[in-house]
Design a protein that fits this description.
Blueprint: E1 7-8, H1 16-23, H2 33-40, H3 82-86, H4 90-110, E2 119-130, E3 135-146, E4 149-160, E5 167-174, H5 221-226, E6 230-235, H6 236-239, H7 270-288, E7 292-302, H8 304-315, E8 321-325, H9 343-349, H10 372-377, E9 383-389, H11 397-412, E10 429-434, H12 442-452
Parallel strand pairs: 1-10, 5-6, 5-7, 7-8, 8-9, 9-10
Antiparallel strand pairs: 2-3, 3-4, 4-6
Helix pairs in contact: 7-8
Length: 455
């Protein structure tokens, strides 16, 4: 199986064969960064006298690097160990190696989830037609309960109203509340804490009905329905508020004994919590939504929720496909390149996203025992799509592509899976580089729809 970009817009077009030929020589090891940049054709935007104990040193202002000549030389950790690489039965050998990598990512980056018992309850709160009768709209309340309390998560689902059988479905979290996804007055306005956002019509961290449909460009529901697929989403703040509150709220409040701390630096941060929540939403789909084929659910996310989708896909093999849109540092981009957003910057800006252990790699990326090409490899042999944008150098699209290229080698070692409609081998790995800014739009979705259509 070859790594074949689904599409690379405009002047960024290279055939999969040409791209593969130019990059094959760049295996893990010291990278010739400028050589790869040229091959890809990416344009990279370019108190005196006081006692020592009382001196507070000012932190230097962070300045992102976009200059390929200033990327530090780095040695990437191998995805496979020698025994796995040489095994006659690679799929069986990969299972053990995959478990090892998954544990290291949990311990050193995302954090381990609690093992305490919990209960789930699924209650349908609404059902009706939407999009002028094209779509069946359903709203479900997924309630997670422990001895410490209950947490409701509102799940919004659209499926084709005229579908004769269960359909594949995209599942992802949204940034502003389910009511922002579509102009449908029946969608419940979230009552959870939200970030202030004029575009989403928020009022002192509360959502308002004026925000209906404000994120519809990121969720082209009609486009998905017309393709014969479903889409399901929940507000990420229902699961865990995206704020550094010392993990006192959201899902962390239901597992207080498992909050991250200096004494317990390997416990889950918010990204791991959001990912865990996606799996609970999949539980609801499996149990209560016959309109959706639960074996053909693609987990998708943009930006920080792209990081979330990747970790959800790594930890829950029920997801048949994993889609990362502009996920950058902590997502698809290689940490060791230190281009755009870095490990240190992300931990300083969002200290609640990852576990405490991850902070020891601030300005120290080469000491990481893992890197993101290994995270992408954890999806194999399921479908994996990574997308970048030329105007999003903060997310290091170059580093995202290199990471995917290396991870694709694991996919190649599995036997071909045939598309039931064409009887041709499924393209397990997809990529595109879109002109434009940090965003997700209908053009991106057109490629995701085509890719997931192979399921």
């Amino acid at each position: 199986m070859s790594l074949q970009p689904i599409s690379i817009q405009r002047n960024h077009a290279l055939s999969g064969r040409t791209l593969r030929r130019r990059l094959d020589k760049h295996q893990p090891g010291p990278f010739s960064i400028q050589r790869i940049a040229t091959c890809l054709g990416l344009a990279m935007a370019i108190g005196l006298g006081a006692p020592l104990s009382s001196v507070v040193l000012a932190q230097p202002k962070f300045e992102a690097n976009y200059d390929e000549s200033k990327v530090p030389r780095y040695q990437l950790p191998e995805i496979t160990d020698a025994a796995t690489a040489e095994a006659k039965d690679f799929p069986a050998a990969w299972s053990g190696r995959r478990a090892e990598l998954l544990q290291v990512f949990a311990e050193q980056m995302f954090g381990t989830p609690p093992s305490n018992p919990y209960e789930l309850k699924f209650d349908q709160t609404d059902s009706g037609l939407s999009l002028a009768g094209k779509a069946l709209r359903q709203q479900w309340r997924v309630t997670v309960s422990t001895e410490h309390g209950n947490l409701p998560i509102d799940l919004l689902v659209f499926t084709p109203a005229n579908a004769k059988q269960s359909v594949p479905c995209f599942l992802g979290l949204n940034f502003g509340g389910n009511h922002t996804v579509a102009l449908d007055e029946e969608i419940t306005v979230t009552t959870s804490w939200v970030r202030q956002n004029d575009a989403n019509a928020t009022d002192v961290h509360r959502a308002t009905a004026e925000g209906r449909g404000s994120a519809a460009s990121r969720w082209p529901v009609e486009q998905i329905i017309d393709a014969g697929m479903g889409v399901a989403t929940a507000y990420y703040g229902d699961i865990d508020p995206d704020t550094d509150d010392e993990f006192q709220n959201g899902i962390h409040a239901l597992f207080p004994e498992h909050r991250p701390s200096a004494e317990a630096p390997n416990r889950w941060g918010s990204i791991a919590a959001w990912s865990w929540g996606l799996s609970r939403l999949l539980d609801c789909i499996e149990a209560k939504l016959p309109q959706i084929d639960a074996s053909r659910v693609a987990v998708i996310g943009h930006s920080r929720l792209g990081k979330t989708a990747l970790w959800a896909g790594a930890t829950d093999s029920r997801f048949a496909a994993v889609i990362s849109n502009n996920s950058g540092c902590g997502g698809a981009a290689l940490s060791r390149r230190a281009v755009g957003e870095t490990v240190g910057r992300i931990n300083d800006s969002f200290p609640h996203w990852f576990c405490e252990n991850f902070k020891q790699y601030n300005l120290n990326e080469n000491q990481l025992p893992i890197d993101q090409h290994q995270l992408l490899a954890l999806v194999a042999p399921r479908l994996l799509y990574v997308a970048s944008a030329t105007g999003d150098q903060w997310a290091d699209p170059h580093g995202e592509f290199i990471s995917l290229h290396l991870a694709a080698d694991i996919h190649r070692r599995f036997p071909d899976k045939l598309d039931p409609k064409t009887n041709l081998p499924v393209k397990r790995v997809g990529y595109h580089l879109r002109d434009g800014k940090h965003d997700i739009n209908a053009w991106d979705w057109a490629h995701y729809i085509r890719f997931v259509g192979q399921l």
